[in-house]
Amino acid sequence: MSDTEVNDVLERLCNLLRMETRAFGQKYGLQPVQIDALTYLTQCNRYSNTPQAVGEYLGLTKGTISQSLKVLEQKSLLRKLPDEQDKRVVHLTPTAKGKKLIENAIADKSLAPALANSTKITELASVLRSTLRKVQQMNKRKAFAACHTCRFNEQSKKGYLCGLTQEPLSAQDIQLICREHEYPS
Ligand code: SF4
Question: Is-contact 16 76, C-beta < 8 A?
Fold first, then answer.
């Protein structure tokens, strides 16, 4: 398969997934960007759940993202909580209702049935992950990847530690995505 064909297939697949997200969101009066923002907030860590980080992750302006966050808050899908150290910083936490909605949204557009008979899923995932990483590096975009793959992630007998913030990390924390993530060189 040529590079162009791979590009075309990925674009078509992304378009189809976007259509599924739009159709799902319509049932709840939500735009795809609102579903995307809420999905991100169910997957990111405590350093990454600010309005600014949501905007960076989705590549959207502050104005666009604040409108979307307002809708999610009005629908009781997320809560805004002030930072304990710095009251100017706001953290966005999905409510139980918000988490459930995203669980359903993810199930709705799952590729599992289409991949059911594929024997090379591990290789496919590895190629896609490596392609994503290279594209992010070429475009100088933040990785927003899982904490356990970060160069600052340290493990000792006492557990996990973020070498950047010097704060302990739980086993659950290291599965979450982080705006400060950097791959080892
Ligand atoms: S180790 Fe890296 S990814 Fe994990 S919290 Fe620290 S900066 Fe973020």
Answer: no
Q: Which is the closest atom of ligand 1 to the Cα of 146?
A: 3
Instruction: Write down the pLDDT at residue 183.
Output: 92
CB 95 within 8 A of CB 79: yes
Ligand 1 center from residue 112 Cα (angstroms): 30
Token pair belonging to 108:
């709705």
| Ligand 1 cavity residues, CB under 6 Å | 45, 47, 147, 150, 152-153, 162, 164-165, 178, 180-181
Q: How many domains does the chain have?
A: 2
Judge whether 126 lies within some domain: no
How far, in Å, CA of 158 to CA of 50, rounded? Answer: 29
**Pick from 25, 40, 20, 1: which is nearest to 113 by CA?**
20
180 is in which domain, residue-wise?
Answer: 143-185
C-alpha–C-alpha distance, residues 94 and 76, integer Å: 9
Output the average pLDDT for the chain.
94
pTM > 0.70:
yes
70: amino acid identity, one letter? K
Residue 1, pLDDT above cutoff 90: no
